[in-house]
Specification:
alpha/beta, 4 helices, about 35% helix, disulfide bond, Thioredoxin_domain, Thioredoxin-like_sf
């Protein structure tokens, strides 16, 4: 399940997670953000229990975008043990995203 996080829930739902978390920084006006949303929902089900997928609307929570220096949307940021380990900017096919996640987690 893809869960929306806010300024109030980010630390609990992302930084304190027991498993890696892929955060989708997006905005309503961003066409590529809408393009990847169904794919991220699929991945949330497929990866359930191994990688959590969370969404942050940067228009509603600009402080989080600023905190992680989000300059372009969509930006997918992978957090492991509360630390950002990789940022992926722009839409990409599912197979490529899975490969990038696998590579980042195997370091």
């Amino acid at each position: 399940m893809t869960l929306t996080v806010t300024d109030e829930t980010f630390d609990r739902d992302v930084l304190q997670s027991d498993i890696p978390v892929l955060v989708d920084f997006w905005a309503e006006w961003c066409p590529p953000c809408h393009m990847i949303a169904p794919m991220l929902a699929e991945l949330a089900e497929e990866l359930d229990g191994t990688i959590a997928i969370r969404k942050v609307n940067t228009d509603e929570h600009p402080g989080l975008g600023a905190r992680y220096r989000i300059m372009s949307l969509p930006t997918l940021m992978l957090f492991v043990d509360g630390e950002p380990v990789q940022a992926l900017v722009g839409a990409r096919p599912k197979a490529r995203l899975l490969k990038e996640l696998e590579d980042a987690l195997s370091r």
